[in-house]
Amino acid sequence: MSAAVDLAIVGAGPAGMGAALEAARHGLRPVVLDEHGAPGGQIYRNIEGVTRDRPGDLAVLGADYGAGAALVAAFRAADIDYRPGSAVFEVGSGGLGVLSDGVARRLEAREIILATGAMERPVPQPGWTLPGVLSAGAAQTLLKASNLVPAGRVVVAGSGPLLFLLAWQLAEAGVDIAAILRTSPRGNLWRALPHALGLVGNPDVAKGLGWIRALKRRGIPFLEGVTALAAEGDDRVERVRYRRAGGETVLPADTLLLHEGVVPNPQLARASGAAHDFDAARGHLAARHDDWLQTSLDGVALAGDGLRIHGAKAAPALGRWAALGCLLRLGRLEAATAERGRAEARAEVARAARPQAFLHELYRVPDEPMTPRDDDTVVCRCEALTAGEIRRALALDVPGPNQLKAFLRAGMGPCQSRMCAPTVARMFAARDGRGVTEGDHFRLRPPVKPITVRELAEMQDLAAD
Amino acid sequence: MSDARFIVIGGGVVGAAISYGLARLGHPVTMIDGADDAFRASRANFGLVWVQSKGLGKPDYAAWSRRSAALYEDFRAELEDESGVDCAYHRPGGVTLALSDDELEEQVAILGQIRGEAPAGEFEFEVVERAQLDNMLPGLGPEVVGATYSAHDGETNSLFLLHALHGAFQRRGGAYVQGHHVTGIEAAAGGGYAVSTADGTVHTGDRVVVAAGLGNQELAARVGLEVPVRPVQGQVIVTERADPLLSMPTLNVKQTREGTFMLGASQAEVDYDITTDAAVLKRIAARNLRAFPFLSDLRVVRSWAGLRVMTPDGFPIYDQSPSHPGIFIATGHSGVTTAAAHAYVLADYFSKGEIGAELAGLSSARFHVQA
């Protein structure tokens, strides 16, 4: 069995890099595990490759993307045990399971920081499983990593700032965007306005408005207040149907890009057994944590958007904050030093995340698409289970999601309930006429990343049993 | 008296099978189930309807398992009719693979003894040599020396079985309440019993069935029955779907109708712990790869740990309270195999108010310490 490392960080996005840099600055060499081949996370995906091989595209991808280059360069230069291509498939107090190059290993670690970022909020729409319908994030990843853009008529639908960023990026890359369908209810703006104080002149908000202006200048139709969105077609998406101002419209489309904002990616933290609560205001699960961002598990902390959506600019500071807690618990820092660092990080997070409350209210997802009315809408993609099938099982008064999983196989597929858990939770709450709770979400079973039977059978560095 | 009102404590596969059986005899039944996060052996099950190797030294239990297996196809069809859920039971026979001559010898000795303890002709098994085994199961590893085969054995999807039982029970008019933790059973004023739950609800009935799995020990003690049960943890691995390969289940590897492979099974005394352990999962994966090397590149989708409801001798307990007549107990770890017998036979005994002589050897009297 190999000796335990002091600090293992999962994820080399802005939060993970921020945490690693802070540890290195205090003389601790952390292990950073990341499933991708290069640092940057989703937000700065392939930043080194783009900078090196197609610097002209930096203009397309925007100034924020380019800003990641400095962070990645500092990360590369620091004394960090960076292990790309390493997928963490299970985690618990005291260590984690890591898969790289087809070999699974157990890594014992005194402190662990999970910086696994955000994922797009899955919102089941009629027809969302048809080929040609993909998430805006997936389209963006293709653009960053492989310089691929969708062909034909593209309809973009949903809400959230990333939707406009992506639409702008695609338009800059020459994609034919037929329409942008905005699903956020108009009432959101009024709820959001109180949070807008102090945002006048905020560069991030100005930038968002800039994307929208640029898109409108291109003559791309912006349609507000869209409901009852549905993708239709035989073998792939051919049409997008929606309702607006009482009337129904059908648009021909070759690609439909969906996006309803981002939520913390809960998989690894949930599978670790760390306690979570449902954050009703934000509409997602959030890990319980102390003032050092440590979860209910000793020595397991969270940082970045995996904790709560604070955005990429706040993520490095959140990483530093979590790392300071680890250093303190490891006895590598004086309390006063750690607390001073935390105060600085906290102020930076507050500054960087200032637009978040406003954005959250502006783009709050209405309940309707989250609890599909149409019985034929697929909710669990892996098992092809529809809303109607789930409602029929709910009518048997099943006590909770884990029993539902048993009855229907909902949430049992390879995605490990990532896509259906938020919807199923809302369906339970709706049945019982109450708010969503943590208990409405599936229990998660390891592994959270694909590992083969052989890799598991040959797992190395396990404590002798 | 088919109008006797029953309260069944427990909504797992044991409680639900008995509840369904009572409801189909015309009894009004209330089934009280725990919360979604209760320890539920029914949801962690491997889904074998297994006879070979059951009941060594306890012929009553071996016979009870065979009886249930024999009833299972009718049971499956009836449940599908009533609930619309097919629990995927089939009975192609089952094999226990041996990875060494010693393992095979030991297995044959056990089955031989069970056959000897059974009435002539009631339990049969075959020793299958490697060459013959290759015609039954594809892709066996070189270390597999042979197997025992029994035509009594089969498999089901234990989760769908639970779904079907709940659906059929409610279809028969049974009342289901969930999220309740039972805190007391007392004689009710005016006859019958009152079952109270943590939230203050009281359910009254003429008779009570205690089928609360690991919760049985405490509940049974309140009515003068000694039911020593403890948790024995088992861990299971499930792979992604693959084309149909295995036409029959083996003790530790089976392929579901959906195409996933299930790999089991471990045994550990870890108290009330349902976290998986990487070292145990590694051992399960390694052992079953020796049996079926083709599993090698299949991706693991899920693993879990569940708690078996284990008695000191491993056999179930069926009893009626001597101090509180009309309160029955049913407990044990093979609730899936015995589900058909629970629904059709045990429920009938409870309806008549007396447990049949075939189960005399499974009363709790066997654990009484002689003074």
Distance between the termini of chain A: 11 Å
* The named CATH superfamily of the largest domain in chain B: FAD/NAD(P)-binding domain
Q: What portion of residues of chain B belong to β-strands? A: 15-25%
- Count of runs of 4 or more consecutive helical residues of chain B: 8
* Whole-angstrom Rg of chain A: 22 Å
Q: Which regions of chain A have little confidence, pLDDT < 50, spanning 5+ residues?
A: none
Number of strands of chain A: 22
Question: What's the pLDDT, averaged over the residues of chain A?
Answer: 89
Helix/strand class of chain A:
alpha/beta
Question: Strand order of the main beta sheet of chain B, please?
Answer: 8-2-1-12-18-17
Give the helix level of chain A as a range of percent: 25-40%
Task: State which percent range the strand residues of chain A make up.
Answer: 15-25%
* Average of pLDDT of chain B: 93
CATH architecture heading of the largest domain in chain B: 3-Layer(bba) Sandwich
Coarse shape of chain A: globular
Explain what this protein looks like in three dimensions.
With 465 residues, chain A is an alpha/beta fold. In chain A, strands 1, 2, 3, 4, 5, 6 and 19 form a seven-stranded mixed sheet that branches. Chain A has a five-stranded parallel sheet with strand order 8-15-9-10-11. In chain A, strands 12-13-14 form a three-stranded antiparallel sheet, with no helix packed on it. Chain A starts with a strand and ends in an 8-residue tail after the last helix. By secondary structure, chain B is an alpha+beta fold. Chain B folds into three domains: 207 residues, FAD/NAD(P)-binding domain; 57 residues, no CATH class; 81 residues, D-Amino Acid Oxidase, subunit A, domain 2 (D-Amino Acid Oxidase, Chain A, domain 2, 2-Layer Sandwich). Chain B has a six-stranded mixed sheet. In chain B, strands 14-15-13-16 form a four-stranded antiparallel sheet. In chain B, α1 links the parallel β1 and β2. Chain B is globular. Chain B starts with 5 loop residues before the first strand and ends in a 19-residue tail after the last helix. The mean pLDDT of chain B is 93. At the A-B interface, α15, β22 and α17 of A face α5, β13, α7 and β16 of B. β22 of chain A pairs antiparallel with β16 of chain B.
